[in-house]
Design goal:
This protein is mainly beta and 151 residues long. It is built from 2 helices and 9 strands.
Length: 151
């Protein structure tokens, strides 16, 4: 397993500690494959996470967002004890999947349909953070009552 040392990043970059922590968390994360999932780009600044949660009802699933970390948890109730399986190939276990969200990404909705849990996300950048055009005035221009006039 490869390890990364982010010490040089901390020495020269201010405010990127969350990014470095996200890399470290991703590096330590288990590569477990249950439940399988897709991450789709559904439009400009719109995303969808789809998890295959066959056998789970809406009351057995929980979606939580806390400090830019989206966590999807599935908890199965106790199985009926009097069942006797000849073959048990359908997973009947709980799970927890976490996804690190970028700044300004919020959950816009969730839907359980046909055994798939769809979690829709949207990036909503505040107007103050969007690019804006800056007017360039010449040296001979004067600012009069909020308007620029040439001298």
């Amino acid at each position: 397993m490869t390890t990364f040392d982010f010490t040089p990043l901390f020495r020269t970059a201010i405010g990127f500690d969350r990014l470095a922590n996200a890399f470290e968390l991703a590096n330590r994360a288990e590569a477990g494959g249950y439940p399988p999932y897709n991450i789709e780009l559904t439009g400009e600044d719109k995303y969808r996470i789809s998890l295959a949660v066959a056998g789970f009802g809406a009351d057995e699933l929980d979606i939580e967002v806390k400090e830019n970390l989206l966590t999807v948890t599935g908890r199965k109730g106790d199985d009926v004890a009097d069942r006797k399986y000849l073959h048990r190939g359908i997973a009947h276990r709980g799970f927890q999947r976490s996804y690190q969200l970028a700044d300004y990404v919020r959950v816009s909705g969730a839907e359980l349909k046909d055994g798939l849990l769809h979690v829709d996300l949207a990036r909503e950048v505040p107007d103050a953070m969007k690019p804006r055009r800056i007017e360039i005035r010449g040296a001979d221009d004067k600012l009069i009552e909020g308007k620029v006039e040439a001298a």
